[in-house]
Amino acid sequence: MTNIGRSPGGFPPAGVNTLVYSQSQPCSYNLSNAWAQPLGRLEAYIHPFTIPPQWYLEAPGAHLVSMIGLAKPCRILHETTPFLRLGTRKACLLAAKSYLHATETISDAVVPLVDFRGWHRGFFHWFLDFLPRVLVAEHHHQRTGAQVHLLVPERLTAWQSESLARLSSPVGSLIPYKPRAGGTNIRCRSLIAASAHRHQHATEAPFDAISPIHLKQLAKRLGSASNGGATMGLPRRVFVSRRGAKSRRIINEPDVSSYLEGHGFCTIQLEKLSLSEQIHLFRQATHIIAVHGAGLTNLMHATQSTVLELFASAHGIRPDYFQIASILNLGYFFHCLPSLNSFHDIHLPLELVDDFLSIAPS
Question: Which residues span the domain enclosing 71?
Answer without folding.
Answer: 17-209
